Structure formats: structure tokens, C-alpha cells
From TrEMBL:
Similarity annotation: Belongs to the TRAFAC class myosin-kinesin ATPase superfamily. Myosin family.
GO molecular function, one term: actin filament binding
Domain Myosin motor per the UniProt entry, residue ranges: 56-769
Domain Myosin N-terminal SH3-like as annotated: residue spans: 2-52
Record-given protein name: Unconventional myosin-VI
Membrane topology: Peripheral membrane protein
Keyword NADP assigned: no
Length: 812
């Protein structure tokens, strides 16, 4: 950075602002903003050199002279203002959510344009990544994966859908299977998506969608794996949020016949819906199609929720069509709806103290009809359901009559928990079933390779972070490691391909953070499991153990060390801070123990797995603990959520490691979810969380800026006399570099481009644009070098001829 040249300095709302350095301190700089405003002081490591033309935008950030987080943000900003939402950083695609349909961006014609075209030959696009994956699969005969990440509402699911549509329409067989892969989405979204404050259509589960190809590289089928459905939402949502879409779609769109059969009412009549938002999504017109008696008072008062892509009544019908298309018959459809209705009724069962000496509770009289509906819909015996919700079965294990079954009465709060646990178990099994069923509708006998698209929540931190964030961030920590491995590998491969003869790129590994979470016995997940197995597990004891076992761990500390006041109020035994690659997160550990346990208590497990209804019974058939329910009845069994996730993740990562990979980083431009608004600071934080900034760091360890010879030639030919511009671009560049006497450690000549060490491209540019006297001197030097190198070439040729002649003479 130089005196008088513009720099990017931190700005609270925009991320960075342009300014000039007016004073230099020991580790800080005083900056004068270019736009009006007072001078301010910024830490030296937060001030970055700016490009000369800050309105310039490039398709690949690596062709910028200064590759840093500020120039990256600025490039994305300038492009976004021109509706260019996609940008490359080397082979990584950044996708900013436009929150409106950009004309012609995803048309069939655009799909055609990208078919078979190499990365970089057309503007950055999600189709370019999809096609690269396909071509790599074909050429390398190796499966591929595309990892789509970003925070909620950033556009992961939409981009995933674009990839799937691109692949099926470009490389499908034109048969039913292609359509089925695309049609599976509405069904998955109905059961796994919900309105949240961040996104009206938020996927509350992670998924890896594989499209399988035969030996001729045509689509033959698909397979979906899913991760971590958010279960807490089934029973409770915050005020402005909703439960899963299916509940509202059923209430709004079901035929009168279904409505009566399943005893459905308006959303406000169900506890599992009425603590959140009870309005339907509808347009002015479709709102009229929803009968009055299906609308909640809140809906009547405030009108429908509006979203261009969502409409509960219409979506119900579309979902029914999609079900048909993917091969679900009417019986199966009704089975699904019946269980959804059953869950709703279950939530309406109320308990009160029994008033007996047992200290237990009973189902309120007012709930008797609900109990009846619930039992009917889930195929349970009403009395058995009553008993299972209000008592817990225990087997005596010691003393007197060993193995005697005793019924322990539950208190009101325990019964409420049991009811909610049952609802969560039934719904999440139903969701598993939906995914299994979806998978059955695009079967394949054999496949040569697949392209998998991973759509999973990115790194997240809120004011209050719980077990869900802990799992998601652990997952992102693993994906980040994979990302680093791959980017590093790609960089090294590029250096090799370009013949640079170097492969030194250094970066900070995050294995220590991964170990902190998943190491055997001492990792946080194992400590938590250990706690769950104790007779009286407690969140505090778990938290204390974590702190004790990792007293001096660099990645772990106590909440009071947080920079944020809210976290400093959290006691040492109520939380811990993990220093993730993307920043420190304070986790509050209340309910960690409960959330880590997927097991129903035994009476409930027995109840549902012996349901009279085949569909419900089958939902629980494959459960881990149904086989030996009776033997285990003495203990509260424990099924670890954390370790199941760890296992799934490790399988996923093994799979990813065995494939070639591409990355799409989705960015949410603003919190209001509107078009044409770029909130710089927000976006910068997402770039940091998605690992993009650390990728820049990683690249800084090598040769981050790169410019093709022809580009350099075009940039500088105007400064050179015609005699020199007649040279071919490669020789032209070589002559310049040699003449300038640049340090050979600062740049490398590849086959197609020049690679620069951090900041060296700019230095070079500066010399080129220096004053005319200096330039004249430079031209002289270039000429001299050319003559010198040509002379050397002539000498070498002459010598070779002489040597050949001598050789011939000897042979003769
Ligand atoms: N490329 C796009 N063009 C137009 N609108 C888009 C695009 N990408 C996203 N959107 C809009 O943004 C909304 C949120 O996108 P999406 O559901 O894909 O986010 P997400 O990252 O999957 O969020 P979550 O993690 O909550 O599921 C979409 O419903 C759509 O309205």
C-alpha cells in the first residue's frame, strides 16, 4: 500500500469503504474516507489495497491485481448491480441470490449454450459448474460432487434444482426418470421445508442428491440421502415461523372428504401450529379458493402470506400431481396425510394432575375426543395410548422379583414431553419414509458413475446457539477441511499443468477443531453420549466435563471469554465457546442431553411398533430398538443423535473424497429478502463463513493472481512501440518481465498465463504505467533483452549446427 493510493478500510454497514492513508501507526492506520466523513483509525490487517478502477468487474476474481476480501466483495458488488449474480474465484462459484427472476438466466436456450463448454469460456453460471462436473465424470470416468453451501435463504436449494434440471434435461434419456428426479422435489419440500424468519421456503434438512449415469453417460436414476431433519419444529415454532408446509397445505387444500375423515380444522385449532404463524401462503386470487372455515383468525385479520413461489392451496394440488407422477397411489397418499393429521391431533392432547397419591397425571376430559381421533388415525388402541402417554414401563432389575414390569406414573410435564417425543418420532419416521419412497421412484439396476449435489446448511451463529448449530457447524468444519484439501489440490494441479515447477501452498488445517468434536472418548460428542448413559444425566455436568477435559485446548474456551456481552452472562457450566474456522461460537448447552437422544421411552416405542395400522407399524419397523423392545423395557434406551450424524457425515465425506468436486458458495444479499439490495457487511461475513476468505489466504501461500498472456498483452501493448507489439503475447510478456528485472520468486510463467505472488501483479502494473522517461528506459531495456536473447538463440543454433556437423563427420 502506498501513500495517496486508495485503500479499502472497514465500514460497519458496507463491509469496506474507500479511503486514503493519512497516518501510519505501529499496528494501525489513519484513514480518510474518499466520500465525506471523518478520518478514522483501522487495524493494519483490516486495510487492503484497492484496484485502480474500483468499478471494474471481472468474471474470475483471480484476475484482479489485488486478491483480498475487500476486492472480492467489491467485485461481487459491482457484478451484482449488473445482474451478474455468478462470479468465479478460480473454480469456485459464488452465487448471490437475486431475489427476482433475472430474464433469460435459466432458459432452455441458456442450458444449450453451456452444454459441453469449458469452464471460463462463457460467463460464470451454475450451468457451467454442472457441465464441468458432467464432462469431468465422462472424461475421468469418475463420479463427481457439487457442494452447495450458504446460510439460510442464500439460494442453495434453488441452485441445486438448477443443477438437477440442467443435468436431466441435457444428459437425460428424455424418459420418465428425468421428470421424476425433478418432481421429487415438491414432495420433499412439502414435508421437509418450512417458513422461517430467514426464508419462506427453508429446507430444514440437509440432502445429497445423486444422479446416476450409465456407461454411455446418460441418466439412469437417482438417490437422495438426507441429514438432520429439524425435529423441534414439529412441536413448536417461534411466533413468525411455521411448522412444515404439509400441515398447512393439508388444512388449506384437502378435499372436504379428507377433511372430515381426518377431522381437520383451521391451523389455529392445533397446538403444534397455533404457537407460530397460522396464516396460509396465497395470492389474492388463490386466497379466495380457500374456504373460510379453514382460515385462522390471524389469517382473516392480516390476510395471506405472500411469496411468488408459495401457495398452500395450489401447492397441495401440485403436490398430489407430483405424488402421482412419481408413482404414489391414492392409498399411499392418504396414508401420508392420515399420519400428518394424527400428529396434529396428538399435539392437542392435554394432561392434568391426577389428584391421586401416585403424583401422576391424567388426560383431561376435554381431550378425550382428540385422543380418540389420534388413536384412530395412527391405528392405536385408545386405552393403550392413554396409558402409554401417562405412564412409563420399567422392568425391575434388582432386589425382590427381578424382571417384574412396573408402571411409573408420569407428571404433567413428563407426559407433555412424552407426547411431543412421540409426535417427533412419528413425523421424522414419516419423513424418512417419504425419502425412501422418493428413492424407489427412480431406481436403477446398475450405474457407472454419479453426480451428487450436496445442499446443506452453511456455518451458522445466532445470539443463542444450541445443539442444532453445534451439529451444523461441526459438519461445516468437516466440509471446510475437505474444501481446503481440494482447493489446495486444485491449485497444485494447476501449477503442475502450467508447468510452474512449484507446489508450495501453505494453509492452517482445522483438524484440531474436528478432533475436539469427534475424537473417541474425549471428543465433545462422546462426552455427551457418556452423559446420556448416566442414570441422571445433566447438561451442567456434561458442560463441566467438556471444560475439564479440554482445559488448555486452543479451540475451546468458557463463555465469559466471549467478545459479546450476551455470552459473557452464560455461566461456565451452561455453555462453551468453540473457535471455528469461520469464527468463535458460543453454544448454550441447555437441552443438549435431551436433544442428543432419539429414543422414545419404551411404552411408546412398543405402542407404535405394534400399531394395528400397517403403514404406521412399518414406519417403526426398521428402528434400532424395536426388535428387542421388551428385553430393554427396564432401561430408558438411548440412541445418540450426535453420533448417528457423525457416522452419516463420515460416510458422506468418504463418498465426497472418492469423487471429483466443485463448489458453489451461495450468498444472501440482504435480510429483507428483496432484490437489488447489497448489504456489504452481511455479505462479507458470509464470505468469511463460507471459507472464501480463508481460500484467499490459502491462495496467498502460492500464486494467487494470474493473467493469461493475451490479457497482459492487451493491457500493456499501448505503452509499447509497434516493434515490440508485433511479438506474440507470450514472448511480449517474457521480454517485459526480463527487461524489468523482476525477482523470479515473485512470478512464474505457465503455459498459458503468468502467475504472481500476492501483490506482485500490482507492482508490475505500476512499473508499466510509470512516467514516460521511465517507460522509454524500459523499452530500451526490452529491446536490449530481445537482442540479447535472440543473439543467444543464434549462438545456440550455430553451436548446434557445428555439433551436428562434427557428429556427422565422426560417423562418416
Ligand atoms: N437464482 C435465483 N433466482 C431467483 N430467486 C432466487 C434464486 N435463488 C434463490 N431465490 C429466491 O430465494 C429464496 C430462498 O432460496 P433457497 O430456498 O434456495 O435458499 P436456501 O439457501 O436453500 O435456504 P434454506 O437453507 O433456508 O433452505 C427462494 O425461495 C427464491 O425465492
Amino acid at each position: 500500500m502506498e501513500d495517496g493510493k486508495p485503500v479499502w478500510a472497514p465500514h460497519p454497514a458496507d463491509g469496506f469503504q474507500l479511503g486514503t492513508i493519512v497516518d501510519i501507526g505501529a499496528d494501525s492506520l489513519t484513514i480518510e474516507p474518499l466520500k465525506h466523513g471523518k478520518t478514522f483509525v483501522a487495524a493494519i490487517n483490516q486495510v487492503f489495497p484497492a484496484e485502480d478502477d474500483v468499478n471494474k468487474q471481472v468474471e474470475d476474481n483471480c484476475s484482479l491485481m489485488y486478491l483480498n476480501e475487500a476486492t472480492l466483495l467489491n467485485n461481487v458488488r459491482v457484478r451484482y448491480s449488473k445482474d451478474k449474480i455468478y462470479t468465479f474465484v478460480a473454480n469456485i462459484l459464488i452465487a448471490v441470490n437475486p431475489y427476482y427472476d433475472i430474464p433469460k438466466l435459466y432458459t432452455p436456450e441458456t442450458i444449450k449454450q453451456y452444454r459441453g463448454r469449458s469452464l471460463g469460456t462463457l460467463p460464470p453460471h451454475v450451468y457451467a459448474i454442472a457441465d464441468k462436473a458432467y464432462r469431468d465424470m465422462k472424461v475421468l470416468k469418475m463420479s463427481q460432487s457439487i457442494i452447495v453451501s450458504g446460510e439460510s435463504g442464500a439460494g442453495k436449494t434453488e441452485n441445486t434444482k438448477f443443477v438437477l434440471r440442467y443435468l436431466t434435461s441435457s444428459y437425460g434419456t428424455g424418459q420418465d426418470i428425468d421428470e421424476r428426479i425433478v418432481e421429487a422435489n415438491p414432495l420433499l419440500e412439502a414435508f421437509g421445508n418450512a417458513k422461517t424468519v430467514r426464508n419462506n421456503n427453508s429446507s430444514r434438512f440437509g440432502k445429497f442428491v445423486e444422479i446416476h449415469f450409465n456407461e454411455k453417460n446418460a441418466v439412469v436414476g437417482g438417490f437422495v440421502s438426507h441429514y438432520l431433519l429439524e425435529k423441534s419444529r414439529i412441536c413448536r415454532q417461534s411466533h413468525e415461523e411455521r411448522n412444515y408446509h404439509i400441515f398447512y397445505r393439508l388444512c388449506a387444500g384437502a378435499t372436504e372428504d379428507i377433511r372430515q375423515k381426518f377431522h381437520l380444522g383451521s391451523p389455529d385449532t392445533f397446538r403444534y401450529l397455533n404457537r407460530g404463524c397460522t396464516r396460509f401462503f396465497a395470492s389474492k386470487d388463490t386466497d379466495k379458493q380457500i374456504l373460510q372455515n379453514r382460515k385462522s383468525p390471524e389469517h382473516m385479520k392480516l390476510g395471506p402470506l405472500k411469496d411468488p413461489l408459495l401457495d398452500d392451496h395450489g401447492d397441495f394440488n401440485r403436490m398430489c400431481v407430483a405424488m402421482k407422477k412419481i408413482g404414489l397411489d391414492d392409498t399411499e397418499k392418504l396414508d401420508l396425510f392420515r399420519v400428518v393429521a394424527g400428529v396434529l391431533h396428538l399435539g392437542n392432547i392435554d394432561f392434568e394432575e391426577a389428584g391421586s397419591t401416585s403424583g401422576g397425571c391424567a388426560i383431561k376430559n376435554q381431550s378425550s375426543q382428540t385422543l380418540e381421533h389420534c388413536a384412530e388415525l395412527l391405528g392405536l388402541d385408545e386405552e393403550d395410548l392413554r396409558v402409554s402417554l401417562t405412564t412409563r414401563v420399567m422392568l425391575t432389575t434388582a432386589g425382590g422379583a427381578k424382571g417384574t414390569v412396573i408402571k411409573v406414573p408420569l407428571k404433567v410435564e413428563q407426559a407433555n414431553n412424552a407426547r411431543d417425543a412421540l409426535a417427533k418420532a412419528v413425523y421424522s419416521r414419516l419423513f424418512d419414509h417419504v425419502v425412501t419412497r422418493v428413492n424407489q421412484c427412480f431406481p436403477f439396476d446398475s450405474s457407472s458413475n454419479f453426480i451428487g449435489v450436496l445442499d446443506i446448511a452453511g456455518f451458522e451463529y445466532f445470539e443463542h446457539n444450541s445443539f442444532e448449530q453445534f451439529c451444523i457447524n461441526y459438519c461445516n468444519e468437516k466440509l471446510q477441511q475437505f474444501f481446503n484439501e481440494r482447493i489446495l489440490k486444485e491449485e497444485q494441479e494447476l501449477y503442475q499443468k502450467e508447468g510452474l515447477g512449484v507446489n508450495e501452498v501453505h494453509y492452517v488445517d482445522n483438524q484440531d477443531c474436528i478432533d475436539l468434536v469427534e475424537a473417541k472418548l474425549v471428543g465433545i460428542l462422546d462426552i455427551l453420549d457418556e452423559e446420556n448413559r448416566l442414570p441422571q444425566p445433566s447438561d451442567q455436568h456434561f458442560t463441566d466435563t467438556v471444560h475439564n477435559k479440554h482445559k488448555d485446548h486452543f479451540r475451546l474456551t468458557v463463555p465469559r471469554k466471549s467478545k459479546l456481552a450476551v455470552h459473557r452472562n452464560v455461566r461456565d457450566d451452561e455453555g462453551f465457546i468453540v473457535r471455528h474456522f469461520a469464527g468463535a461460537v458460543c453454544y448454550e448447552t441447555t437441552k443438549f442431553v435431551e436433544k442428543n437422544n432419539d429414543a422414545l421411552h419404551m411404552s411408546l416405542e412398543c405402542l407404535v411398533s405394534e400399531s394395528k395400522d400397517r403403514f404406521v407399524r412399518e414406519l417403526f419397523e426398521n428402528s434400532n430398538n424395536s426388535k428387542d423392545v421388551k428385553q430393554k423395557a427396564g432401561k430408558l434406551s438411548f440412541i445418540s443423535v450426535g453420533n448417528k450424524f457423525k457416522m452419516q457425515l463420515n460416510i458422506l465425506l468418504d463418498k465426497l473424497r472418492s469423487t471429483g468436486s466443485s463448489f458453489i458458495r451461495c450468498i444472501k444479499p440482504n435480510l429483507k429478502m428483496i432484490s437489488h439490495q447489497f448489504e456489504g457487511a452481511q455479505i462479507l461475513s458470509q464470505l468469511q463463513c463460507s471459507g472464501m476468505v480463508s481460500v484467499l489466504d490459502l491462495m496467498q501461500g502460492g500464486f494467487p493472481s494470474r493473467a493469461p498472456f493475451h490479457e497482459l498483452y492487451n493491457m500493456y501493448q499501448k505503452y509499447m512501440p509497434p516493434k515490440l507489439t508485433r511479438l506474440d503475447p507470450r514472448l511480449f510478456c517474457k521480454a517485459l518481465f526480463k527487461a524489468l528485472g523482476l525477482d523470479e520468486n515473485d512470478y512464474k510463467f505457465g503455459l498459458t498465463r503468468v502467475f504472481f505472488r500476492p501483490g506482485k501483479f500490482a507492482e508490475f502494473d505500476q512499473i508499466m504505467k510509470s512516467d514516460p522517461d521511465h517507460l522509454a528506459e524500459l523499452v530500451k531495456k526490452v529491446n536490449k533483452w530481445l537482442i540479447h536473447s535472440r543473439w543467444k538463440k543464434v549462438q545456440w543454433c550455430a553451436l548446434s549446427v557445428i555439433k551436428c556437423k562434427q557428429l556427422l563427420f565422426i560417423i562418416r
